[in-house]
Design brief:
Layout lengths: L3 E3 L2 H4 L2 E2 L22 E3 L3 H11 L4 E7 L4 H10 L20 E8 L28 H16 L3 E2 L6 E3 L24
Parallel strand pairs: 2-4
Antiparallel strand pairs: 1-3, 4-5, 5-7, 6-7
């Protein structure tokens, strides 16, 4: 049985905008195929559904920016910007490459606008850290709101990136997966 499941945006009522399927990321080029699907480990998918349930009564939607990231893609990112603290060394394995992590933000359901989080996704600076007080008060509140929703749904956070959440202790529990596990639904053009 495939350990990954496809995230169904319509069924969950969320948005999917995979940053690495476009040139709108720190590498300035697509890393995934344009029609790459969004996948998570079967253990993580119900927790994402719970996040959507918790956000909905607040007038919010979830916007997924990245989820399962094949090991081949992790190498592309690392070879471009080998920056420990923001990117997992692929020799150690990224929780993304296990399907055990998700990068996301919150969107106002009425306007469709992303909530201000103080920095953009994948800003590799101290401003991206949880609890950073050098960002405005609205952005701090929004980060705390996201953190509360995510931890209430059973996710662990990564202190350096306000957008990154993962299953608890994924290393040793989940294997690092290659793009080949997806069969015909491959994310990479290899």
């Amino acid at each position: 049985m495939l350990p990954l499941v496809r995230v169904d945006a319509e069924a969950l009522g969320l948005d999917i905008a995979l940053a690495y399927a476009t040139p709108d990321n720190f590498t300035r080029r697509p890393v995934y195929l344009a029609d790459a699907g969004c996948f998570l480990h079967a253990d993580a998918a119900p927790l994402l559904a719970r996040v959507c349930q918790l956000a909905r009564p607040l007038g919010l939607r979830v916007k997924v920016l990245d989820a399962f990231r094949p090991s081949e893609a992790q190498w592309v990112l690392w070879n471009h910007t080998p920056l420990p603290g923001f990117l997992a060394d692929p020799r150690r394995g990224s929780p993304h490459s296990m399907g055990a992590a998700v990068d996301l933000t919150l969107v106002d359901d009425a306007s469709g606008a992303e909530l201000d989080m103080g920095t953009g996704f994948d800003e590799f600076s101290a401003l991206s850290h949880h609890g950073n007080q050098d960002i405005g008060p609205d952005a701090q509140r929004n980060r705390h709101l996201l953190l509360g929703i995510m931890t209430s749904a059973g996710w662990d956070f990564y202190r350096n990136e306000w957008w990154h959440y993962q299953l608890f202790s994924p290393r040793g529990r989940y294997p690092v997966l290659s793009d080949s596990v997806l069969g015909p639904d491959r994310m990479m053009g290899v």
